[in-house]
Hints:
- The protein has one domain.
- Helices cover 63% and strands 5% of the residues.
- It is built from 6 helices and 2 strands.
- A two-stranded antiparallel ribbon has the order 1-2.
Amino acid sequence: xxxxxxxxxLDSDQEKLQRIMKxxxxxxxxxxxxFRAKDTxxxxxxxxxxAYMSRLNQEMMQMNMRPMMITFVPLILIxxxxxxxxxxxxxxVSPVSLNIIPGDxxxxxxxxxKIDGKICHSEHxxxxxxxxxxxxxxxxxxxxxxxKTSMDLS
Length: 154
Protein backbone atom coordinates (compact mmCIF):
# COMPACT_ATOMS: atom_id res chain seq x y z
CA UNK A 1 0.00 0.00 0.00
CA UNK A 2 1.19 3.51 -0.80
CA UNK A 3 2.67 5.27 2.26
CA UNK A 4 0.81 8.50 1.48
CA UNK A 5 -2.61 6.79 1.66
CA UNK A 6 -1.79 5.24 5.02
CA UNK A 7 -0.46 8.51 6.42
CA UNK A 8 -3.43 10.40 4.98
CA UNK A 9 -5.77 8.15 6.90
CA LEU A 10 -3.73 8.20 10.13
CA ASP A 11 -2.66 11.87 10.12
CA SER A 12 -5.89 13.60 9.20
CA ASP A 13 -9.00 13.88 11.33
CA GLN A 14 -11.39 12.08 8.99
CA GLU A 15 -14.58 13.16 10.77
CA LYS A 16 -13.56 16.81 10.71
CA LEU A 17 -12.50 16.51 7.06
CA GLN A 18 -15.84 14.91 6.12
CA ARG A 19 -17.75 17.63 8.02
CA ILE A 20 -15.81 20.41 6.27
CA MET A 21 -16.31 18.82 2.85
CA LYS A 22 -20.02 18.34 3.45
CA UNK A 23 -20.45 21.92 4.67
CA UNK A 24 -18.51 23.50 1.79
CA UNK A 25 -20.24 21.32 -0.80
CA UNK A 26 -23.68 22.27 0.58
CA UNK A 27 -22.73 25.96 0.58
CA UNK A 28 -21.44 25.77 -3.01
CA UNK A 29 -24.60 23.95 -4.12
CA UNK A 30 -26.83 26.51 -2.44
CA UNK A 31 -24.79 29.38 -3.88
CA UNK A 32 -24.98 27.91 -7.39
CA UNK A 33 -28.75 27.43 -7.07
CA UNK A 34 -29.15 31.06 -6.02
CA PHE A 35 -26.96 32.14 -8.94
CA ARG A 36 -29.00 30.12 -11.44
CA ALA A 37 -32.26 31.46 -10.00
CA LYS A 38 -30.81 35.00 -10.14
CA ASP A 39 -31.80 35.48 -6.51
CA THR A 40 -29.54 38.43 -5.64
CA UNK A 41 -30.77 38.64 -2.05
CA UNK A 42 -29.85 35.02 -1.35
CA UNK A 43 -26.54 35.47 -3.22
CA UNK A 44 -25.67 38.43 -1.03
CA UNK A 45 -26.60 36.46 2.08
CA UNK A 46 -24.44 33.51 0.98
CA UNK A 47 -21.54 35.76 0.00
CA UNK A 48 -21.36 36.96 3.62
CA UNK A 49 -20.31 33.41 4.48
CA UNK A 50 -17.63 33.43 1.77
CA ALA A 51 -14.70 34.32 4.07
CA TYR A 52 -15.65 31.52 6.45
CA MET A 53 -15.89 29.04 3.58
CA SER A 54 -12.51 30.15 2.25
CA ARG A 55 -11.01 29.51 5.67
CA LEU A 56 -12.62 26.05 5.75
CA ASN A 57 -11.31 25.28 2.25
CA GLN A 58 -7.84 26.38 3.28
CA GLU A 59 -7.98 24.16 6.37
CA MET A 60 -9.15 21.23 4.25
CA MET A 61 -6.28 21.76 1.80
CA GLN A 62 -3.78 21.85 4.65
CA MET A 63 -5.20 18.63 6.07
CA ASN A 64 -4.84 16.98 2.67
CA MET A 65 -1.33 18.30 1.96
CA ARG A 66 0.28 17.44 5.31
CA PRO A 67 0.45 13.65 4.78
CA MET A 68 1.79 14.12 1.27
CA MET A 69 4.56 16.42 2.48
CA ILE A 70 5.38 14.05 5.32
CA THR A 71 6.03 11.20 2.88
CA PHE A 72 7.01 12.76 -0.43
CA VAL A 73 9.80 15.12 0.60
CA PRO A 74 11.72 12.64 2.79
CA LEU A 75 11.39 9.85 0.23
CA ILE A 76 12.67 12.05 -2.59
CA LEU A 77 15.56 13.23 -0.40
CA ILE A 78 16.41 9.63 0.51
CA UNK A 79 16.32 8.62 -3.13
CA UNK A 80 18.39 11.62 -4.16
CA UNK A 81 21.09 11.67 -1.46
CA UNK A 82 21.26 8.21 0.13
CA UNK A 83 20.69 6.10 -2.97
CA UNK A 84 22.37 8.02 -5.83
CA UNK A 85 23.03 4.93 -7.97
CA UNK A 86 19.28 4.40 -8.26
CA UNK A 87 18.96 7.83 -9.78
CA UNK A 88 21.39 6.89 -12.51
CA UNK A 89 19.25 4.06 -13.88
CA UNK A 90 16.65 4.53 -16.55
CA UNK A 91 13.59 2.30 -16.40
CA UNK A 92 11.34 3.31 -19.30
CA VAL A 93 11.24 5.29 -22.53
CA SER A 94 8.85 8.19 -22.94
CA PRO A 95 7.62 9.25 -26.39
CA VAL A 96 8.14 12.91 -25.41
CA SER A 97 10.40 14.80 -23.07
CA LEU A 98 9.00 15.15 -19.55
CA ASN A 99 11.53 17.81 -18.50
CA ILE A 100 9.21 20.73 -17.89
CA ILE A 101 11.48 22.55 -15.46
CA PRO A 102 14.46 24.15 -17.22
CA GLY A 103 17.96 23.20 -16.12
CA ASP A 104 19.81 19.98 -15.32
CA UNK A 105 18.81 19.68 -11.65
CA UNK A 106 15.31 18.25 -12.18
CA UNK A 107 15.50 16.07 -15.32
CA UNK A 108 12.86 13.36 -15.38
CA UNK A 109 13.96 12.07 -18.79
CA UNK A 110 17.37 11.91 -20.45
CA UNK A 111 18.05 14.98 -22.61
CA UNK A 112 19.86 14.52 -25.94
CA UNK A 113 23.16 15.89 -24.55
CA LYS A 114 23.26 13.24 -21.75
CA ILE A 115 23.21 10.20 -24.05
CA ASP A 116 26.44 8.35 -23.20
CA GLY A 117 25.67 4.67 -23.73
CA LYS A 118 26.13 3.86 -20.02
CA ILE A 119 23.14 5.45 -18.32
CA CYS A 120 21.13 6.97 -21.15
CA HIS A 121 20.97 4.93 -24.33
CA SER A 122 18.38 7.03 -26.12
CA GLU A 123 16.65 10.36 -25.73
CA HIS A 124 13.60 10.57 -23.41
CA UNK A 125 14.48 7.54 -21.27
CA UNK A 126 12.82 8.00 -17.87
CA UNK A 127 15.04 7.99 -14.77
CA UNK A 128 14.03 5.69 -11.91
CA UNK A 129 13.22 8.58 -9.56
CA UNK A 130 11.09 10.21 -12.28
CA UNK A 131 9.21 6.94 -12.71
CA UNK A 132 8.64 6.81 -8.95
CA UNK A 133 7.49 10.46 -8.94
CA UNK A 134 5.02 9.92 -11.79
CA UNK A 135 3.80 6.62 -10.32
CA UNK A 136 3.28 8.19 -6.90
CA UNK A 137 1.18 10.98 -8.37
CA UNK A 138 -0.81 8.55 -10.50
CA UNK A 139 -1.53 5.81 -7.99
CA UNK A 140 -1.91 7.76 -4.74
CA UNK A 141 -5.35 8.97 -5.87
CA UNK A 142 -6.46 5.47 -6.79
CA UNK A 143 -5.23 4.06 -3.48
CA UNK A 144 -6.92 6.89 -1.59
CA UNK A 145 -10.21 5.94 -3.25
CA UNK A 146 -9.73 2.25 -2.44
CA UNK A 147 -8.99 3.04 1.22
CA LYS A 148 -11.89 5.52 1.29
CA THR A 149 -9.61 8.40 2.22
CA SER A 150 -10.52 10.33 -0.91
CA MET A 151 -11.75 13.90 -0.94
CA ASP A 152 -14.77 12.82 -3.01
CA LEU A 153 -18.02 12.61 -1.05
CA SER A 154 -20.03 10.71 -3.64
